[in-house]
Amino acid sequence: MKYIKDKRAFATGVITAAGALLCLGALAVQGMQMWFVIALLLFAAWSAVSWFAAFTRKGAAEQAAEYADERDRYLAQRSGHAALLITSYLLYGACMLALVLYGIYKYTVFITVAVTLCGALLAMLAVFLGANLWFERRG
Predict the structure, then answer these.
(1) If you write DSSP's letter for every residue of 6-39 in order, what string do you get?
(2) What is the mean pLDDT of residues 26-34?
(3) Model pTM?
(4) Going by fewer Cβ within 10 Å, which terminus of the chain is more open, N or C?
(5) Residue from 56, 52, 57 nearest 16 by CA
């Protein structure tokens, strides 16, 4: 029996197979609509490629770990931290700008944008803290 070599490709295959089944169910319930047929074909093809990749090759992280030295790991860590910092500042700035625009113009679209961006910031914080706890315990 073959074992899974790329967990990410396996997960992608499972998710896209579920999407294909949902499209098939929608076709059964709503009748033949071209939108669902195209989506079913795309999901099925993506799922097949992902399943093939999951059992035949190593994941990108495993391949990179084989060839990376200390400097490569350090640069990847620094660039990841910089990307996270820049993204959080951009989200925070856009959120504050939307709040200021809501205060000036009183359009509800600005408060909706501000709440959405604030939610994205909170989700990013939760993911960051969760990843930090994970690596503190297992790293």
Answers:
(1) -HHHHHHHHHHHHHHHHHHHHHHHH---HHHHHH
(2) 91
(3) 0.61
(4) N
(5) 52
